[in-house]
Amino acid sequence: ALPASGLVQPDAVRAATARRVQAAKRDIPHFYVTRHVDIRALTRLRADLNAAASGHARLSVTHLLVKATGLALAAHPHLNRVWLPDGILELGSIGVGIVTETPHGLRIPVADRADQLPLDELADRCAGLFARARAGSLTTQDVSGGAISISNVGMFGADSLTPIISPPQAMILGVGAEQTLFRPDAEGRPEAVQEIILTLAADHRLIDGAEAARFIATLSSLLEAPLALLR
Q: Is 204 in the active site?
């Protein structure tokens, strides 16, 4: 038999997080769309940009995902809105939240204008957000706005993540680790590819299945043909 253990009360941060995610899962009608994405071209582009990144921050997969998500949302502007108790709020700019692990629990700083910022500027902005998140000094502006967030667990080796939406946002994208698989090429012969699994959780009060599928298809196209991220 297992030894008896004492009852431990959650600290304030854990209790607040528990209340928030419990309410989100209870009140938001989640549904999910999943897609495998070939990231061979994205990996090459990232390597080339970092090799030439004199004086600039190194680009991570997360930076490229934030940019691609911003561009995908710009291509589907009717999804850039959130559900509020008194109505639907259409957002004036495109922000992408980034779930960040900190000593104070998870935080979700928002990179505003993710569709418009050049990659180097976006990487610098993200670095500032991450630093303030870990220091516990995020401002109200740092965490405001955005209809979507990204939760990337690839660095932990997880194949995929089915995430919980952070209200009042309408979507969250779970990102898994890079995997090497064999897929048939154009002539039906096995070819090694590098893929990630994306899982989009969406609020069914605002978004239907077809809209979510079109959005994740646009996002996947941007990641598979990533030169568009440089425009």
A: yes
Nearest CA to 25 among 165, 206, 154, 219?
165
In the block, residue with structure tokens 């549904």: 31
Residue 53: what pLDDT?
72
Catalytic residue among 11, 159, 185, 208: 208
Using an 8 Å Cβ cutoff, are 163 and 174 in contact? Answer: yes
Residue 39 sits at φ, ψ, to 5 deg, of: -110, 20
- Strands 110-112 and 179-184, by their bridges, are unpaired
> Which residues are registered as beta bridge partners of 149?
97, 172
Q: Is 159 a catalytic residue?
A: no
* pLDDT tens track for 102-135: 988 899 999 999 999 999 999 999 999 999 999 9
pLDDT of residue 12: 84
Report the alpha-carbon distance of residue 217 to residue 19 in Å, rounded: 33
Question: Tokens 């509020």 label which residue?
Answer: 84
